[in-house]
Write a structure and sequence with these properties.
The complex is a heterodimer of chains A (247) and B (222).
Chain A (H helix, E strand, L loop, with lengths): L1 H17 L1 H21 L7 H7 L1 H25 L2 H8 L4 H35 L3 H8 L1 H21 L4 H27 L7 H7 L2 H33 L5
Chain B lengths: L2 E6 L2 E3 L2 E4 L2 E6 L2 E6 L6 H9 L12 E4 L11 H7 L4 H7 L18 H14 L4 E4 L8 H17 L3 E5 L3 H7 L2 E6 L2 E7 H5 L4 H17 L1
């Protein structure tokens, strides 16, 4: 059984490595990291978009975490009723193993992309600022980034196991966006109360002081973990009717 | 002789009944040929037996199943695909030499031809040594060598295997060469189940093939 688990993990982990576009995206991520480091050397983290660039590693982690559920949904939708999945499940493969392996592999792929961008950014930033504290701060954020990526991928997998087809992406998008839309409305409403003109969501996020990036990360993780916790158990049961079955 | 009971409610696709409620028994050993015109419900029956139809029962045991148009992950090579099924390509190659699996060791992931993919899929289904193996049109895309090889494998499986193999086929020659039992489907209903000899009769091979074709046609046309 352990060999089967290992082979399954390896089989799915290979999916990203095989994909040539993965290398391209990793290269783009590294290039963006370099560009962000160069731009950040001329900026301060106090205003709007600047904060997003100056803390590019966190921005990248959040972007990947937002993308991970949709990647998971796309993969589960493609795999669930494919011929090889039907053949595998008829042959006694554990569907629950697939449901666990897929988010782990998606999170691992996203983490590799994060590393490509963040390592380049932090390296270049350190070279520009001669401040080793930048790297220390980046390294400290790694466990949270990993947790965020795994929980996001698990959330996407759970949604895809419970809801069929394209509706899964729409519902996932709604569930992820809902608290942030509320936050943006609150911020806009608070801004109008104080007489300051309302700002765009990006600016709202950009104006957040550095500590609030951590809050964003924690909020995202807890939100997604809450959804995942609610749905993953259902997903493991629902996988029986969704994975390896064809209507 | 042990038997396998195939039992199901009416199976719908949209509003159309693809397979009507029914029950039929086939031998628990040997090769059973499944015959029917296009759209008769053969693939649906195979999927039902494999337990992969949405809303259908889950299989209580491992089923060897090879779909009509097998398709494997494009990022895996043949050896990796075999490992995903808990099998070893080298062992499969030695067990089923007629399927020419040695040719599959070199190709890069995603480059197997339709026939090669079918050969691998059939080997994986047979390699599981399940009590029931369902092969959906396994001969269709195979080249000349592999057709002969698979015929020999199934003919010997009929003699040596402990489980049952169900093979959907459109060829009287294949049915005559490999099957001991035959199940005929017409518009989602079982219209005949019995030994091949009952339809083919006795005599020279050509004579039996002709007789089998005529009787199957008569059953299919009602």
């Amino acid at each position: 059984m352990q060999a089967r688990v290992r082979d399954t993990m390896r089989a799915f982990a290979l999916r990203d490595a095989y994909n040539a576009s993965f290398i391209r995206v990793a290269a783009i991520s590294a290039f963006a990291g370099m560009a962000a480091a160069w731009l950040a050397s001329t900026m301060h983290a106090n205003h709007g978009m600047e904060a997003i660039i100056v803390r590019f590693d966190r921005t990248l982690a959040i972007m990947l975490a937002l993308h991970a559920p949709f990647r998971a949904i796309e993969r589960v939708n493609a795999d669930a009723s494919s011929d090889w999945m039907l053949q595998l499940t008829a042959g006694g493969a554990a569907k629950s193993l697939y449901v666990v392996v897929v988010p782990l592999c998606i999170a691992a792929g996203a983490f590799l992309l994060f590393c490509a961008g963040a390592v380049t950014f932090l390296g270049a930033r350190t070279a520009f600022t001669h401040d080793a504290g930048v790297i220390r701060a980046g390294v400290r954020a790694v466990p949270l980034t990993l947790l965020m990526l795994v929980s996001s991928s698990a959330f996407g997998t759970a949604i895809a196991c419970v809801i069929r087809g394209r509706s899964a992406s729409r519902i996932a998008a709604l569930m992820i966006a809902a608290p942030w839309v509320a936050l943006a409305f609150n911020a806009a409403s608070a801004a109008s109360d104080t007489g300051t003109p309302p700002t765009l969501l990006v600016d709202v996020l950009g104006y957040l002081p550095p500590r609030l990036y951590l809050a964003f990360t924690l909020q995202h993780i807890s939100q997604v973990l809450l959804y995942t916790g609610l749905m993953f158990v259902i997903a493991l049961f629902a996988a029986g009717s969704r994975i390896g079955r064809r209507a | 002789m042990s038997t396998i009971r195939i039992e199901h409610d009416t199976i719908l696709r949209g509003r159309t009944a693809v397979l009507h409620e029914g029950m039929v028994e086939i031998p628990g050993e040997g090769v059973t040929g499944l015959v029917g015109i296009n759209g008769a419900g053969k693939t649906t029956l195979m999927m039902h037996q494999a337990g992969v139809l949405a809303g259908g029962p889950e299989p209580a045991e491992v089923i060897g199943y090879s779909p009509q148009r097998p398709d494997f992950p494009a990022w895996l090579n043949a050896a990796q695909i075999a490992r995903l099924f808990g099998l070893d390509l080298h062992t499969l190659r030695e067990r089923f030499p007629g399927l020419q699996l040695d040719e599959l060791e070199a190709p890069a992931p995603g480059t197997l031809s339709v026939g090669q993919t079918q050969a691998l899929s059939t080997a994986l289904a047979l390699g599981l040594d399940a009590r029931v193996t369902c092969l959906d049109e396994p001969f269709a895309p195979l080249d000349f060598r592999r057709r002969i090889g698979l015929s020999e494998i199934l003919a010997s499986a009929g003699r040596a295997r402990s489980g049952a193999v169900v093979v959907a086929s459109q060829s009287a020659s294949e049915l005559l060469d490999v099957c001991s039992w035959i199940l005929v489907l017409r518009a989602g209903r079982y219209v005949f189940t019995g030994p091949v000899a009952e339809l083919a009769g006795i005599g020279a091979a050509e004579e039996r093939r002709g007789r089998l074709e005529r009787r199957i046609l008569a059953l299919l046309n009602g």
